[in-house]
Specification:
CATH superfamily of the largest domain: Type I PLP-dependent aspartate aminotransferase-like (Major domain)
GO cellular component, one term: cytosol
Low-confidence stretches: 1-16
Largest sheet: 7 strands, mixed
Number of domains: 2
Radius of gyration: 21 Å
CATH architecture of the largest domain: 3-Layer(aba) Sandwich
Cofactor: pyridoxal 5'-phosphate
Number of helices: 15
Family: Belongs to the threonine aldolase family.
Distance between the termini: 33 Å
CATH topology of the largest domain: Aspartate Aminotransferase, domain 2
Keywords: Pyridoxal phosphate
InterPro entries: ArAA_b-elim_lyase/Thr_aldolase, PyrdxlP-dep_Trfase, PyrdxlP-dep_Trfase_major, PyrdxlP-dep_Trfase_small
């Protein structure tokens, strides 16, 4: 996804021809109503957000400090950790977290899920850069259970959970399941690391605040451009010892840029603006999902959604559904859902739905009515 909530359905590594992307972006920007995602901000709109922080007259960061230190303190406060360290990318932050686990345990194996971000979207950086090996506790489309962690065939330095697991449908465990996995990880002598790129969205389903979720883990990564809407950036949170280690390896990996204040300030603004709104997005996602599931031939997963995002399947090819989405936007100024991909299920294509501020005005009746018009463009008969 891109931006605060993504151009509906565009995946992190999904190739899109420039002219297709430009047409889709132009159509979305011209819409009066948006069901899934947000209107992608221009660079000028991104920069206008910087003034919201009230920090533009302060000194910028110089290889750290300044507003970066303010952001790090805010994240540590939210997650209840001793410290947090800003990184330019989540990929870099997670490599440092896994390296820390290997260095401190002497174990070069990491318990990962084959659908996790590190396996599917990071070009196996944990192996190519650090020489770590993956052990898969399960191949089921969910995070591993405590029993599966206890049954690992070899010792691992880190157990990694992705909360929520995006490529399984933005799914989360229950709170009791998460507590049990944390206990099993500790009993195995391993560290628990949370890939929490979208952890901000997980508190409603888990029914516990951010600091209690992060409190189960030894380290937590959060993204600032996913959900929060910053230009870029991430943080790795945990102990003071981890933070000291992370700052050294951030420098070694090339992540200590001279100044990073534009990303930092948009992250601070996003935390203030979006965090209070997320529970409302998650609640409305359940209304949206139920209405979409009522469309002819539709499938929704999970139902109800665990976060403000979920998967939708509709009849048709990805090409036909994407064309229908763009022409609906161009002709009626309504953005329904795009980013369709052909699915394993014959006759269906899949996309990811993101419920954000623009989608809050849609009622179930609105969704069914516009959904019918959308499907008519795919199959007029």
């Amino acid at each position: 996804m891109t931006g605060a909530h993504g151009i509906s359905g565009l995946c992190d590594d999904q190739p899109v021809e420039d002219n297709t992307r430009q047409r889709r972006t132009a159509a979305l920007r011209g819409c009066d109503r948006i069901l899934s995602g947000i209107r992608p901000p221009t660079m000028r709109e991104h920069l206008a957000v910087l003034d919201e922080t009230g920090l533009l007259d302060d000194e910028p960061d110089f290889y750290g400090g300044g507003p970066m230190a303010t952001l790090e303190e805010r994240v540590a406060e939210l997650l209840g950790t001793e410290a947090a360290v800003f990184f330019p990318t989540g990929t870099m932050a997670q490599q440092v977290a896994l390296r820390y686990g290997a260095d401190h345990s002497g174990r070069d194996a990491v318990a990962l899920h084959p659908l996790g971000h590190l396996e599917k979207h990071e070009r196996h950086a944990y192996n190519q850069l650090t020489g770590l090996r993956a052990v898969w506790p399960t191949t089921e489309p969910r995070n591993p259970t405590a029993d599966e962690i206890a049954a690992l065939a070899e010792p691992v330095g880190t157990v990694l959970l992705e909360l929520p697991m995006r490529d399984a449908g933005f799914v989360l465990p229950s709170w009791d399941e998460l507590v049990a996995v944390a206990a099993a990880t500790g009993a195995a002598g391993a560290r628990l690391h949370l890939d929490g790129a979208r952890l901000w969205e997980s508190t409603v389903h888990l029914e516990h605040p951010l600091h209690e979720i992060a409190g189960l883990a030894d380290s937590t990564y959060v993204s600032f451009y996913k959900t929060i809407g910053a230009i870029s950036g991430a943080a790795l949170a945990g102990s003071a010892d981890l933070a000291t280690y992370a700052r050294v390896w951030r420098h070694r990996y090339g992540g200590m840029a001279f100044q990073q204040w534009p990303a930092v300030l948009t992250a601070l603004a996003g935390l203030r603006r979006e965090l209070p709104l997320i529970p409302g997005y998650v609640a409305h996602a359940r209304t949206v999902a139920a209405a979409l599931a009522a469309l002819p031939g539709a499938r929704v997963y999970p139902e109800p959604p665990h976060t403000q995002r979920f998967r939708l399947w509709l009849p048709g090819t990805a090409e036909a559904l994407n064309e229908a989405a763009v022409t609906l936007a161009e002709e009626e100024k309504i953005w329904f859902a795009a980013g369709w991909q052909d699915a394993d299920v014959p006759g269906l294509a899949m996309t990811e739905i993101t419920v954000a501020a623009p989608g809050l005005d849609w009622t179930a009746d609105d969704i069914i009515e516009v959904g019918g018009r959308f499907l008519a463009r795919v199959s007029p008969s």
